[in-house]
């Protein structure tokens, strides 16, 4: 299968590209710079120059492929306005891919975050939020899943708060960056809130499984660790960086403060049973031991 991918050279995307190529697929990768084009080629993919705002390029890439995987996101969390811009750009790109695939029966796998379920771990049956700071992403994913009624085998892989590899990535990676900047490995509140996690190499397998066989309109959870307490995550970061570990007001985490402070464990029981997905790589707390001061 020839697969069009956005975000192909990021932490998750590079793992997905390798997983696809290792399993006999070909990859057409959207690349926004010479450096990312070279990285895509080195990984065995064919680069297609363009960014998430180049909608004609995105339509063309999706149209000439046998399926598509969307992974790109602006990741600008500096302010609510910057985050809203990233969400709007992603929504336009998803719409463009969908337009190119309508009526084709081809697979289209997008990504989102795992949802919040009060008092319990969320499951694949729970809806993603469509309001709040990242509600726009939830609405975009819902629109992709609705393409199932328009002849697209659309599905969504829901990613946990941290997708990690070699101690980098996700919300835990943001905590590490903030700790380096402030000199404190901080966590909001009492730190008992739980964040789910998955290794990027395990997540990549799930994206391939969804591409190859997920039914139209379905959502799946790439969750290996159901929920580590944030203070435990901060403790490893602090120890590895030689920094004090302390509670920090949620406002100190900027636009992501309310999200960082929320308890959001998640389950992948249905995904494992239905798709035969089984995580095999190190847990988040194990992987954070790769952080270097």
Automatic annotation (TrEMBL):
InterPro entries: Epimerase_deHydtase (IPR001509), NAD(P)-bd_dom_sf (IPR036291), NAD(P)-dependent_oxidoreduct (IPR051783). GO terms for cellular component: cytoplasm. One of its GO terms (molecular function) is aldehyde dehydrogenase (NAD+) activity. The lineage of its organism: Bacteria, Bacillati, Actinomycetota, Actinomycetes, Pseudonocardiales. It holds the Pfam family Epimerase. This is Nucleoside-diphosphate-sugar epimerase. Residues 3-217 form the NAD-dependent epimerase/dehydratase domain. It comes from the Bacteria. It comes from Umezawaea tangerina.
């Amino acid at each position: 299968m020839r697969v069009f991918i956005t975000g192909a050279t990021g932490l998750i995307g590079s793992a997905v590209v390798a997983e696809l190529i290792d399993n006999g697929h070909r990859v057409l990768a959207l690349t926004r710079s010479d450096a990312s084009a070279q990285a895509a080629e080195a990984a065995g993919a064919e680069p297609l120059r363009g960014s998430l705002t180049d909608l004609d390029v995105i339509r063309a890439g999706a149209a000439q492929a046998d399926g598509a995987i969307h992974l790109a996101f602006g990741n600008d969390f500096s302010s609510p306005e910057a985050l809203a811009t990233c969400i709007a750009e992603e929504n336009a790109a998803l719409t463009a891919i969908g337009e190119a695939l309508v009526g084709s029966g081809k697979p289209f796998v997008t990504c989102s975050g795992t949802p919040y379920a009060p008092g319990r771990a969320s499951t694949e049956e729970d809806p993603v939020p469509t309001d709040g700071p990242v509600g726009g992403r939830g609405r975009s994913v819902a629109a992709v899943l609705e393409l199932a009624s328009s002849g697209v085998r659309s599905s969504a892989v829901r990613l946990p708060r941290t997708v990690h590899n070699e101690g980098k990535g996700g919300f835990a990676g943001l905590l590490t960056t903030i700790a380096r900047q402030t000199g404190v490995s901080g966590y909001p509140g009492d730190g008992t809130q739980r964040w789910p996690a998955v290794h990027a190499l395990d997540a990549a397998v799930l994206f391939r499984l969804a591409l190859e066989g997920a039914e139209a309109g379905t959502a799946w959870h790439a969750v290996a660790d159901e929920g580590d307490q944030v203070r435990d995550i901060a403790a490893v970061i602090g120890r590895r960086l030689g920094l004090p570990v302390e509670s920090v007001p949620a406002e100190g985490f900027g636009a992501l403060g309310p999200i960082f402070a929320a308890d959001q464990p998640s389950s992948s029981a249905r995904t494992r049973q239905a798709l035969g997905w089984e995580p095999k790589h190190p847990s988040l707390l194990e992987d954070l031991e790769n952080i270097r001061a």
